[in-house]
Amino acid sequence: KGKLYIVPTPIGNLEDITLRALNVLKEVDSILAEDTRTSSVLLKHYEITKPLKSYHIHNEHKVLAPIIERINEGENIALVSDAGTPAISDPGYLLVRECLANEIEVEALPGATAFVPALIKSGFPTDRFVFEGFLPHKKGRQTRIKEIAEEKRTVILYESPHRINKAVEQFKEFMGEDRYISISRELTKLYEETITGTVEEVLVAITERKIKGEMVVVVAGKDYKPV
Ligand code: SAM
């Protein structure tokens, strides 16, 4: 039997890949990629040539059985996503579950993921935190925000630049303008920036100047007070 390797790739800065990740990518028989074009650019940069197959939310159910079969026949397979750690708000969970059900060993390599640097840069407590991934776009969005409003632990969210203003306005409505939040955008990239303050302060800042790029939102617990 082969193994499945979950391999994190950079979230911006191309140096954020571990030596082990590069070695695994060089040694596996094939690589499953969320987007083969994105990953082939990355692999080319590290001078890795491997058969690439697509594995994304639209085909992940369909391709499970053939992948399991290949690993059972002895192939070692790596899974990468467009950026960061596969299975973290990215495809991967289903495949891991299927491998474990088939007694296939899964090696999850530690590496780049956007929420850890965002949490740390917020300055909010890191001893207990909750990762909420993306908020629902429509149905259930308000309910989720109301739940987060009651949360005592630090909460981490992924949000798209198109919805960030809406999100912060909803925080104001359901959490109050004095709740502390932090937005980290373009982490590890040239225009990396973190904006931290009360909901009202952040709302003013992002309304004056439209913010772009990929971003992580960190919401302080409901009892949090800065020093
Ligand atoms: N698997 C990835 C990880 O480990 O973080 C997350 C993939 S998810 C589809 C993409 C989201 O991650 C973006 O919408 C953004 O919230 C966050 N993200 C990814 N790269 C980022 C970066 N360089 N700076 C800030 N947020 C980032």
UniProtKB/TrEMBL annotation:
Keyword S-adenosyl-L-methionine in annotation: yes
Claim: S-adenosyl-L-methionine is one of the keywords in the record: yes
UniProt superkingdom: Bacteria
Catalyzed chemical reaction(s): cytidine(1402) in 16S rRNA + S-adenosyl-L-methionine = 2'-O-methylcytidine(1402) in 16S rRNA + S-adenosyl-L-homocysteine + H(+)
Domain Tetrapyrrole methylase: from-to ranges: 3-202
PROSITE patterns: RSMI
A single Gene Ontology CC term: cytoplasm
EC numbers on record: 2.1.1.198
EC class name: transferase
Main function: Catalyzes the 2'-O-methylation of the ribose of cytidine 1402 (C1402) in 16S rRNA.
HAMAP family (UniProt xref): 16SrRNA_methyltr_I
UniProt similarity note: Belongs to the methyltransferase superfamily. RsmI family.
Database matches in PANTHER family: RIBOSOMAL RNA SMALL SUBUNIT METHYLTRANSFERASE I (PTHR46111:SF1)
Protein name in the entry: Ribosomal RNA small subunit methyltransferase I
